[in-house]
User: Fold these one by one.
Assistant:
Number 1:
Amino acid sequence: MHLRPITAVGLIAMAASPALAQSKTEVLDTYANIAQAGYEDSLIKAQALQKAVDALVETPSAEALQAARQAWLEARVPYQQTEIYRFGNAIVDDWEGKVNAWPLDEGLIDYVDASYGGPTDANQLAALNVVANPSFSLGGSEVDASEITPDLLEGQLHEAGAVEANVATGYHAVEFLLWGQDLNGTDYGSGNRPWTDYSAGEDCTNGNCDRRGDYLQAATDLLVSDLEWMSGQWAEGGAARAAVLEDEDAGINAILTGMGSLSYGEQAGERMKLGVMLNDPEEEHDCFSDNTHNSHYYDGLGVRNVYLGEYLRVDGSVVTGPALADLVAAADPDVAAELRDRLDATMVELGQIKSAAEAGFSYDMMLARGNAEGEALIMGAVDALVDQTRAIERAVTALGVEQIAFEGSDSLDDPEAVFQ
């Protein structure tokens, strides 16, 4: 995920606490085990998505498109619970932009509505439409896109022209190709791409159905290979696991950094409050599918998983072990109890958003200007996440770790700057 410019908050410096050193390795083992299981589950669900996409392209139908969409939705559940690992782990942060970057200028990939517009000063490739163009000019050179392959997407299209909005790979590129644009604004409804966008011959709608299928398959294949790689980084002998375990204090810092940064600057700020301030459905995380309520919920659950050292796998088994919660309880039981309560309160608030959306009050409807009920739902979760972050800061103090810096957001730290 590529963030907007951010500030640092919650910078705390204290001496390390040698009394806790003996149990830190066990806590870090659990942290790495949950990461490996989460990425492996994400891979399993992405492979199921890959099969559904192949079936759609091979034999297009309304049923096949719906099956692929459902597989995408299911793939998001374990992946969102891994997002906490992006903060504090350089290996994940350097990789994550390929798989979950947003928002994206979808006109780079495929056809868009006329209201979308064309190239802009910020992005000359905003309406490139690779699906419709087997060759195009990029940086003064002609690019051969006659075959749409993972190498083309990753090597030449993704972040083309050094523009972060040129997202050519990952979950959201696949999401757009399955749902199409959501043209409903803050009214109910997701994207409504017809299944005939993948039909052959005269039944093909919107042209280039074969190339659209090639793009969808290439993006999905790349997602699978990327998740396979990351799962390996957290397995025994993997580089991400080794990086966490080689320095116990740095490893504990990584856990706390992930908890605080995802809770505060990323989720409460960039993903939630900013959208309320702008009343903009384009600020939805899963904007094409109207799945944002689930993305927020499982992000929150990922923080709770790591703190408590518990993760429910897609096969129903549980990964569990010594956790940060144990260290905090040993250092200050009152702080531990407060943080547990704050995490529970956050999940209640996120659960209310999820329940409301599943009942027909979609997240983009909540963002509508003047929708007091929607704003109250979202801001209830924002406030809970901020309170949760303050409790995480108190845990930092209780543990006496060396240094923590949480990500911030203008929407929380300097709201006036959002409108400048």
Number 2:
Amino acid sequence: MKKLFYIMGAFLLLASCTDDYKDWADPQAIAQPDVVAFGNGSVSSVGTVNLNNLAEGQTTVQVANITAPTATSEAFAPEYLLHIGDNSYTIDSEGNMSAAELQAYLASNYGRNPTVTRTLDATIEMWVSNGVTKVKMATSDVFQINAIAQAPVIEEAYYVTGNINNWDNTNTDYVLTNGGGDVYDNPVFTCTLPAGLVDGNYEFKLTPKSGLGGDWSKCITASETAGRFATDNAGENIIIEAVEGAKFYNLSFNMLDQTYTVSALSFDPFVYFIGATDGWSASDQKVASQGEGKYTGYVYIADPNGWGLEFKFQKRPGDWADDSQLNSNNMNTVSGDFVKTGDNFKANAGEGVYFVELDLAAGSLKGTYINNMNLVGDYNGWNAGDAAQQMTWNPTEFCYEITGAAVTANGWKFAANDAWDINLGGSVGNLVANGDNLSVVGTTIKLYPTRKTSDNIYCTVE
């Protein structure tokens, strides 16, 4: 035992000359040599580790070549610890680590794009133990691991091929896309099929873009496991069972997880807002259907209880059942001044009125913060930015109001944010987007945009 501690003490002196004296402020930016010091041994990089090329049953991959420092004793085998970033992994003396752990690190820090090689700065430590005390004998200089995450190949578009288009896989009428961007950052592809185009059930496969024109070998099909798909045309046709009253069927395929969902859509006249504004207790603000699953309207979002400017929608007011809720999990994209936060949506421009654009068929939600609402008409040269005719929000009555309005019978409207993108006209009892000019005259005008007390957006003029 004394001999072991003497040898360990000698190696501690060696380790003190090589251990932990390098300050890599930005290790990813510093090119490392192929071979680095490891006490009086060395560590060298291996070729690119491509986790997509694992052999059947393979569980480890070599990430480094190790020439160990002088052994302490044949009776006490050294242990090796690999450090990548803030993570530590046990490896063997030949530099092999768990393939699953490397995949998890890549996926967590970089995503799973299999077309990009990631360069990871790493170090290796050698430890020895006498069963009671463990001592670090050496730490290598920084070396680099080049690795590619494991993931299926994802193409930029997929097409429905089935009884909806006579099984013609040159047909591109029904396309699934991820909305653009990196397919590995956003691997969910969606499409909405109109109901009633076939008698009975829909039956189809998905043809990737590269397979259009006759190549069936790459098609996505249904696997034996519900909710999971098979690749390479290996499964059965995907079937959508007809749902009475459905107007659309929404397809959503996660090409990374290789899962899919199909849901029938039937659209109601209104979708109801519920959230922190009323302490999650009222759902009387609502947005109205514009047809084909599109809803628009205005909601007032506040946070009187300090719970955050969060909200959801309900198909049936006050009903929290799963088939009534519309939350962040139902939306493929959330944009503008709305963001996802957990299961909820959140307004990120502060308390105020927001213009809502909701598309249930596409699974998208956009919010636009209303900085101001102006009166604009013939009397002020149709100047949408006329600050003298700006209205004030009344949070008690849920309305915009103005006294001293100068409107005339020659025509006027409401316009938001000093522009014409969002405007209201029509009749005082039923204001609609881009509606006709109003001709009612008065000096006190109140605009009620949230449909809180009426199915219509309306105004009063006195």
